[in-house]
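hiii so um. not sure if this is the right channel but i have a protein structure encoded as tokens and i wanna go backwards to a sequence. like what aa goes where. can anyone help
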């Protein structure tokens, strides 16, 4: 993508992100994420379709408050008493190019910063959050908890190291230009790029981590599909912020999963991870815009 087009796209996404959180009063992390996955899809879809006229983009999302837990299989020997959430937001991208289909994923752990004591360029991970950092830096073998029919299943994601597929989302309303920034896992989190820039790189496969659908799946791919399927079957209800059964886990995510039929959304299984789902397909008779 040419530099001027990339910069223009980033600015438009930054403005869309500002619109998503406009009107939120002293929101917590879940409220920020809910605004992103419920408000951003329509804006982002319009922006991407305008920027790439030879591609047909669909964007959808869903929000769940009770996220799956990763219980470390050897947590006693590792010295952790708490079990981390797998993440606060999962962004996935499906690119269809003729008969070829490729997937990308970005798992984010959100951190709302206290502007008085830290910033997007220096946020020290506290002692009580070290178990989450250990998950993203070492990926120990874990068992799903609070994950409906996945409860008790073991997963062992490899490599046992930091990858661009699992990062932190720093939220600071006092930050320059935009409140949303991304940082690689570390004891001290330092913003590397804003979320708008990250999304542009993400659809170009310059960040995130690819995954596959066909068996045999690698461990990362299996975990991503686990999260997608349990999340799709749930809805969100948090009237405090105006989201009552506001899940957008609809046609866009159904298309992403290639389901033979739509799954029934359940009020009783409000478990899963918030998802922002992006899909693109080349229009007939056109070459993809470079």
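sure thing!! here u go:
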């Amino acid at each position: 993508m040419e530099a001027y087009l990339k910069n223009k796209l980033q600015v438009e996404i930054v403005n869309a992100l500002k619109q998503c959180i406009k009107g939120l009063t002293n929101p917590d992390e879940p409220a920020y994420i809910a605004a992103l996955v419920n408000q951003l899809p329509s804006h982002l879809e319009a922006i991407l379709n305008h920027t790439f006229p030879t591609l047909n983009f669909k964007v959808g999302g869903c929000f769940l408050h009770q996220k799956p837990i990763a219980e470390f299989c050897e947590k006693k020997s590792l010295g952790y008493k708490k079990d981390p959430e797998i993440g606060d937001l999962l962004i996935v991208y499906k690119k269809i190019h003729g008969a070829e289909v490729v997937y990308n994923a970005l798992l984010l752990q959100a951190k709302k910063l206290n502007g008085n004591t830290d910033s997007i360029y220096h946020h020290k991970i506290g002692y009580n959050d070290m178990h989450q950092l250990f998950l993203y830096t070492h990926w120990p073998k874990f068992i799903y908890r609070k994950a409906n029919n996945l409860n008790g299943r073991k997963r062992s994601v490899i490599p046992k190291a930091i990858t661009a597929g699992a990062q932190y989302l720093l939220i600071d309303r006092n930050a320059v230009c935009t409140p949303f920034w991304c940082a690689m896992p570390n004891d001290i989190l330092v913003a590397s790029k804003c979320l708008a820039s990250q999304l542009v790189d993400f659809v170009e496969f310059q960040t995130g981590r690819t995954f596959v659908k066909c068996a045999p799946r690698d461990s990362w791919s299996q975990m991503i599909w686990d999260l997608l399927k349990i999340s799709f079957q749930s809805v969100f209800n948090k009237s405090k912020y105006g989201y009552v059964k506001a899940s957008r886990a609809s046609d866009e995510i159904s298309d992403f999963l290639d389901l033979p039929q739509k799954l029934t959304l359940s009020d009783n299984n409000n478990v899963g991870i918030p998802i922002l789902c992006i899909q693109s397909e080349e229009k007939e008779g056109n070459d993809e815009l470079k």
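oh and The helical segments are 3-21, 29-51, 75-78, 130-138, 195-203, 219-232, 251-257.
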